[in-house]
Amino acid sequence: MDKMIAGKTISVTEEGFLTEFGQWDKSIAEAIAAENNISLSPRHWEVLNYIQSEYKKETPLSIRKIGKSGVVDIKEFYSLFPMAPLKTATKIAGIPKPVSCI
Amino acid sequence: MKRLVILGAGTGGTMMAKHLSKELDRKLWNITIVDDKKEHYYQPGFLFLPFDQYKPEDIVKPISKFIPKGVEFINQAAKKIQPEDKSILLSDGSSISYDILIVATGSDIDPGETEGMHGSEWDKSIFTFYNFEGAKALRDKLKTWEGGKLVVHITEMPIKCPVAPLEFAFLADSFFKDKGMRDKVDITYVTPLSGAFTKPKCTEALNYLLSEKNIMIETDFAIESVDNENKTINDYGGKSVPFDLLVTVPTNKGSQVIELSGLGDELNFIPTDKGTLQSKNYPDIFVIGDATNVPTSKAGSVVHFEAEILTENIISYIKGQKLEQEFDGHSNCFIETGNGKALLIDFNYDHEPVTGTFPIAGIGPLRLLKESRFNHWGKLAFKWVYWNMLLKARPIPFVSAKMNEAGKDYN
């Protein structure tokens, strides 16, 4: 389905995950973050950049993986992206919902 | 003489030994299987043991009973896999070499991964049914437990048989009803996922089961610690759930030998090609079952389907041919829903569980994603199928390694 995000028509899943990473840019990230009551700080961006680079390497992402990354520990990951941090962070980063759910 | 070594004589290792003992030219190939255990467990039985529906003796047999004739069995632990010189170090200090290695070392629980889980309340008010000893201890606890807050909990994904904890919650509901004490028990299901079922389609179709059985649910719960004194589980986001009896599925990890050999990911699962089941780093190492990192369920049915694919691929590999067979992630499982009923689900890498008929398109007799007594009998019959057909690598009628797309409703 299509959704207007930051003034652009973006293709997303029912849950709001981008289906084409090529449509992602920083203004999209900021708009999705705002929908989740998050205002992106440089610290958020360090985590988002890490998540995107792992995604490009096709590494499966999990909360444990991110906690061991050296970029952020799980406690801080939760304080940056409250409630369901992996879901929220991947949504903002414009990548598919991680399939650690099987 | 060349040597094919199988590490692990569980479901996957035993099936591969049986398949390959029939397929390989035994004048050219020695087949060796290495495992330090003495017993073979029917692991789906761990779900029924706590409720006294199965007796311990129903679900354990000697491991040696299932090693095929002509296969060498080394009853020792593998200490280290040394892929550079194609050898395995054994617990007595000797080593064996291989031309082809199949890793079937499975997965196991590690409560030590969560702060406080393996603490003073372990085996007192904190239990797991994910191994034989745990399931037996929980059975004894349930015999005398007088009620209170029962919390059924998953620590983190992936876990072996991902629906088992939910089945446990359903069976607990029936168990306490039958004992006439359901009103004394609160059941809460706590999961790191966003819904009770691991697949969104299932959650949509089956959420009614939770409300029907009065089971409360706490989702997106990533546990940080267990507080033994106050009897709560606490998550990184600041949530806290109190318990009187905690039945948890601790973190599941691959075998320690994988870690010591430097072959695994952060949970000791081996990076494996999800189609061919060849290790991503060493072409002469293949991986089956729970030991892989492939994105499908860690379950016996998956191993059964993988074994057929892997047998073909190993034959091709020996002949120097391209590996043609591609595993599609096919998984098939019964889900006990309590009150003598069960569901059946069938899915693969590409398709989520769907409604329809199984195994014969349009006929069944089993119905997918629908509760029925017939499915429950199917689940109980499976114990016989496991000991007598599956482990002996006999084909199961109408059930193919790759998912059959006919007779199913895709919308």
Largest interface: A-B, 19 and 21 residues
**What is the share of helical residues of chain B?**
10-25%
> Mind summarizing the main beta sheet of chain B?
5 strands, parallel
H/E order of the elements of chain A? EEHHHHH
CATH H-tier superfamily of the largest domain in chain B: FAD/NAD(P)-binding domain
CATH topology term of the largest domain in chain B: FAD/NAD(P)-binding domain
How many H/I helices of chain A? 5
How many domains comprise the coordinates of chain A? 1
Commentary on this structure:
- The complex is a heterodimer of chains A (102) and B (411).
- Chain A has 102 residues and is mainly alpha-helical.
- Chain A has helices spanning 26-35, 42-56, 63-67, 74-80, 85-93, and strands at residues 2-5, 8-11.
- Chain A has one domain (2-93).
- Helices cover 45% and strands 8% of the residues of chain A.
- The longest helix of chain A has 15 residues, at 42-56.
- The radius of gyration of chain A is 13 Å and the shape is globular.
- The model of chain A has no long low-confidence stretch (mean pLDDT 90).
- Chain B is an alpha/beta fold and 411 residues long.
- Chain B has 3 domains: 2-106 and 255-318, FAD/NAD(P)-binding domain (3-Layer(bba) Sandwich), CATH 3.50.50.60; 111-251, FAD/NAD(P)-binding domain (3-Layer(bba) Sandwich), CATH 3.50.50; 331-409, no CATH class.
- Chain B is 23% helix and 27% strand.
- Chain B contains 7 helices and 25 strands.
- In chain B, a hairpin with a 2-residue loop joins β21 and β22.
- The longest helix of chain B is centred in the last third of the chain and has 19 residues, at 300-318.
- At the A-B interface, α3 and α4 of A face loops of B.
